[in-house]
Design brief:
Blueprint lengths: L16 H9 L15 E2 L15 E7 L17 H4 L4 E3 L6 E3 L3 H5 L4 E7 L8 H6 L6 H4 L11 H13 L10 E3 L28 E6 L5 E6 L2 E6 L10 E4 L11 H16 L2 H5 L1 H18 L1 H6 L7 H7 L3 H14 L4 E6 L15 H26 L6 E6 L3 E2 L13 E2 L3 E6 L7 E3 L1 E2 L6 E3 L4 H11 L7 E3 L5 E3 L12
Parallel strand pairs: 2-11, 2-12, 5-16, 6-7, 6-11
Antiparallel strand pairs: 1-19, 3-4, 5-15, 7-10, 8-9, 12-15, 13-14, 17-18, 19-20
Helix pairs in contact: 12-13
Length: 498
């Protein structure tokens, strides 16, 4: 159901044929034609009916690719049959009435500061990261495997950057407002297959996330299985050396031989070319191009960004509280980036080395949950929530931990057990930025297979996120066909709000 509040007005930025041709000619020097797609926005004004509109100054989004089991995290069913409840036991948490998995002892201590939604549901049991993170009306398997499918909608971080950039009125930023860690999505697996999700779609490439590159060594090896494939690989999500670091990806880094003087001279040549295209410069699209180039140049020179990425500035004890793993240190870096002024930071727990890894536990479910997955999540989530709270940042920083779907209630009869894809019911976690503390939303049936109270869709989560960040979820933007579409056709979940 689409709820429109107030009277929307549309602001359209049209292009002439001449401007399109000029923009295409600029591709060699800057962003290329796909980055100049038409876009517009309209605002219906913030809702006064729900609390905490704009409460969050920043957002940290944690995405567990592959999707964890609700039954081994925060929706355990200890009284169900063995093939449902599995072999892990519940423990009490700091939130009365909410038990969590025994492998999450640190996690348990911060539940009184969180909202847990146990009633997530949607009809697409595929790795639809784009469905979870964009507000697209529906997702199909070919779209999942094609980031450039024309039907995709913009990633939530891209929308936040787009709105923030309009408010900045062309002023360059010292730190990215849409940055993602630890490395480009779906880029570190054998037989790389790009997956859709964290892309700006019809907003244009200027609004894609800025990615970091992870530099460091893993300290533990693991044998990964996918049907008849097996590889022995050093797994950074299980442990990394303290000397690890994150750097801006090469698209925004200087080559080794490129000094800032040479960069400035090259920039001067581009500026000379700019003067030959004054007509385009007068258009809003031309100004947007200049803003993106100025932003990239500012980030290269930004001491604030470089310092935010320097993990060695943190005490070792604090680093270890997050877990000396790729996910844990990415979460700590996310906190540093937000503290430095970044508006939207995404951390992916991605596949590594082999497809079907991450949280996609079709095989070796319990060995992986025990040794590879739950211990890292336990320390990272607890470390991040505690650290933000201790610094007085949690109330103004929205934190969410989400995935594409859940896992089947019944354990499959495969090597090491396994749970397959299940989108009818699963759980997600939220904290800070206007989200209620010590709160459980929704519930499932006795096997955690069906939602029986307060169903919540991924699009509802996006609407709630936009609301807390001060963005009307029903504002419109122009798609590829110059048609106004709402950011997300969904409802703000008032039960999640403080």
């Amino acid at each position: 159901m689409l709820r429109i509040l107030g009277s929307p007005r549309k602001l359209c930025n049209g292009w002439t044929r001449r401007e399109m041709l000029q923009a295409g000619a600029l591709g060699f020097f800057s962003l290329g034609l796909p980055d100049f797609l038409q876009l517009a926005q309209a605002s219906a004004g913030p809702s006064t009916r729900l609390p905490h509109f704009g409460k969050a100054k920043a957002c940290i989004l944690l995405h567990l690719y592959g999707s964890p089991s609700q039954l081994e995290t925060v929706d355990m069913k200890p009284n169900s049959a063995p093939e449902i409840r599995g072999e892990l036991k519940p423990i009490r948490s700091s939130l009365p009435g909410l038990d969590v998995c025994e492998l999450l002892p640190n996690f348990a201590r911060v539940m009184d500061r969180c909202t847990i939604v146990r009633s997530m549901t949607h009809p697409y049991p595929i790795h639809g990261v784009a469905y979870a993170l964009t507000g697209i009306p529906k997702i199909e398997l070919p779209m999942e495997l094609n980031p450039h499918d024309s039907r995709h909608w913009p990633f939530v971080g891209s929308v936040v950057e787009f709105v923030t950039r309009q408010k900045q009125a062309g002023r360059p930023t010292e730190i990215p407002n849409n940055i993602a860690l630890p490395f480009a999505f779906s880029s570190r697996r054998v037989g790389e297959v790009p997956r859709a999700g964290p892309y700006a779609a019809f907003l244009g490439g200027a609004y894609n996330p800025i990615w970091t590159d992870f530099q460091g060594k893993a300290t533990r090896n693991v044998v990964k299985t996918l049907q008849d494939q097996k590889i022995d690989i050093a797994e950074p999500y299980m442990g990394i050396e303290p000397e690890c670091r994150f750097e801006l990806a090469t698209a925004t880094q200087l080559p080794a031989e490129m000094t800032l003087d040479r960069l400035d001279r090259r920039r001067g040549l581009v500026e000379q070319f700019d003067r030959a295209r004054r007509d385009l410069e007068r258009s809003s699209a031309g100004r947007n191009l200049d803003h993106h180039r100025a932003t990239a140049h500012a980030l290269i020179n930004s001491e604030k960004t470089r310092m935010a990425l320097k993990l060695d500035q943190e005490p070792l004890a604090l680093r270890e509280s997050y877990g000396m793993t790729l996910f844990g240190q990415s979460c700590l870096t996310a906190r540093r980036l937000v503290e430095a002024g970044s508006r939207f930071v995404t951390v992916f727990w991605d596949e590594y080395g082999l497809a079907g890894s991450g949280w996609d536990t079709h095989w070796d479910h319990y060995p992986r949950m025990k040794n590879e997955l739950l211990p890292g999540l336990d320390r990272a989530w607890a470390g991040l929530i505690s650290d933000l709270d201790n610094r007085g940042l949690l109330d103004e920083t929205l934190v969410l931990c989400v995935s594409e779907h859940g896992r089947t209630p019944k354990i499959q009869n495969v090597n090491g057990g396994g749970r397959d894809h299940w989108s009818q019911a699963y759980s997600c976690l939220f904290a800070g930025g206007g989200v209620a503390r010590g709160n459980v939303v929704g519930k499932t049936d006795k096997v955690a297979g069906t939602v029986v109270d307060c169903p919540v869709s991924p699009k509802d989560i996006l609407a709630t996120l936009y609301h807390l960040l001060g963005i009307d979820p029903h504002m419109t933007i122009m798609d590829r066909t110059n048609r106004p579409v709402p950011l997300v056709e969904a409802m703000v979940i008032k039960e999640m709000l403080a």
